[in-house]
Amino acid sequence: MNKTYLPPTTEIERKWYVVDATDQRLGRLASEVANVLRGKNKPAFTPHLDTGDFVIIVNAEKVDVTGKKRTQKLYRRHSGRPGGMKVENFTKLQSRLPERIVEQAVKGMLPKNSLGRQLFTKLKVYAGPTHPHAAQQPEVLTIKTIPGEN
Q1: Which GO terms describe its biological process (predicted)?
Q2: 29 near 21, Cβ under 8 Å?
Q3: Through-space distance between the first and last CA atoms of the chain, rounded to whole angstroms
Q4: In which region does residue 4 sit, left (phi positive, over 0), alpha (psi from -120 to 50) or beta (all else)?
Q5: 92-141 pLDDT, tens per residue?
Q6: CA-based Rg of the chain, rounded to a whole angstrom?
């Protein structure tokens, strides 16, 4: 008899982590953060429950991409009106709203359902080095990505 393990809600421990995105590769950073948000790094991981932790990402304006993504990667948004498609490349969006780049990368790696939307609310992204979540005493989460040149 295979049964899905259901951890008691009192057993689920929520931690806060802070990640410095300076010189981190965007995709590798996003996949690690998505795993922590989802709770896949915990022994009590349950696919259909929110067992993950909160993640704060600082210095989103200093995130790095490889190859020609700075000029060729496009970000689209739509106003909902006919002809309302707005398109920007990576460089323009990074100068305007650097948080949105990291948020969209992480959101794309979460489940596409109500659980994914709930998990996304536990991600806090800030362009600069400061954040207002000092009261939660976040631990530093080190992301092991490949350092190096573009």
Answers
A1: negative regulation of translation; translation
A2: yes
A3: 51
A4: beta
A5: 999 999 999 999 999 999 999 999 999 999 999 999 999 999 999 999 99
A6: 17
Residue of 16, 19, 48, 8 whose CA lies nearest to 143: 19
Query: Which tokens is 138 given?
Result: 């976040």
Domains of the chain and any CATH numbers: 16-140 (3.90.1180.10)
pLDDT digits (tens, 9 = 90+) for 58-91: 999 999 999 999 999 999 999 999 999 999 999 9
Q: What are phi and psi of 94, to 5 degrees?
A: -65, -35
d(CA 34, CA 136): 20
Main-chain dihedrals φ then ψ at residue 16, nearest 5 degrees: -115, 130
**Residue 51: is it exposed, middle or buried by C-beta count within 10 angstroms (0-12/13-18/19+)?**
buried
